């Protein structure tokens, strides 16, 4: 029972982190609520919220807060489990010396509008005790007269083991000596197939950091991801929808650039600008006027981007994109943290014009 309940609980954490808006149903802790990778019906959301609480990994709001900060500020001092501080810190030290004030700010407005998230946050401890500890004890008691074993093994021990398996994603999946980086070297995240099996797909971590809004954690046979197939099945049954995936072209571009060890940082952006003579010119005055007329434009390194359709997909939350509208966001983009090559590719697809007389 401990193993079965542990696997079910593991799925609730890996699947449980995506997008929450009142205008549409939402998803789970990691892929549903944290990364907005798909949308789910109210029944799936409630089930994931209840089973997720039973894993003693804190409410959805708190879990998503530190996870979004991890993706937004990866490998910096504002990353809650900054891997550059060592394996022990990224595994559990960040919790033993918990310092939320050091975390970088993230946008949680979407979660605070979701009634399931708010309900779970209010009743987190009663759900944890009832479903996580007392329920296994009751099943073992009425099933084979062993309530003590049910509470000890399927309750407390299962919770501890599930927690540490989850923490391995923060530690081992970011360790410099572990796994591979087939998609990006811009972060410490790595793919570890054996650990991916243990974590139901979460340790295909290099792919995940390169394509954080993809509901899958890998596309190849050697990138095992059991959670992906559960979400896919739910989609076929009509319980979830809006499953997001990175385009095959984007994935191949990331692989190609990784093979060439290309970083494509600021200097690469300059080269790209010179290679796009067909982009129309726009003056700064026209840029500002269009923004005043409610066009959602931003400027980075002399290039104007239309971010209207990307705001809700931004891994760091829509608030950061909203702050950049009508402004030169060059320092925000390059100074905030090292964006992945995938982020650069997405940015390239949003280009609409060049600023006239740009000195970039």
Automatic annotation (TrEMBL):
Keyword Electron transport attached: no
GO molecular function: heme binding; iron ion binding; stearoyl-CoA 9-desaturase activity
Family annotation (InterPro entries): Acyl-CoA_DS (IPR015876), Cyt_B5-like_heme/steroid-bd (IPR001199), Cyt_B5-like_heme/steroid_sf (IPR036400), Cyt_B5_heme-BS (IPR018506), FA_desaturase_dom (IPR005804), FADS-1_CS (IPR001522)
Keyword list, A-Z: Fatty acid biosynthesis, Fatty acid metabolism, Heme, Iron, Lipid biosynthesis, Lipid metabolism, Membrane, Metal-binding, Oxidoreductase, Transmembrane, Transmembrane helix
Family matches, as CDD domains: Delta9-FADS-like
Record's keyword annotation contains Iron: yes
Domain Cytochrome b5 heme-binding residues, every copy: 279-356
GO biological process: unsaturated fatty acid biosynthetic process
Record GO cellular component, one term: endoplasmic reticulum membrane
PROSITE patterns to which the protein is assigned, alphabetical: CYTOCHROME_B5_1 (PS00191), CYTOCHROME_B5_2 (PS50255), FATTY_ACID_DESATUR_1 (PS00476)
Domain of life where this protein originates: Eukaryota
Membrane topology, record value: Multi-pass membrane protein
Subcellular localization(s) per the UniProt record: Membrane
Family matches, as SMART domains: Cyt-b5
Pfam families in the cross-refs: Cyt-b5, FA_desaturase
Family of the protein in this entry: Belongs to the cytochrome b5 family.
Record-given protein name: Acyl-CoA desaturase
Organism ancestry: Eukaryota, Fungi, Dikarya, Ascomycota, Pezizomycotina
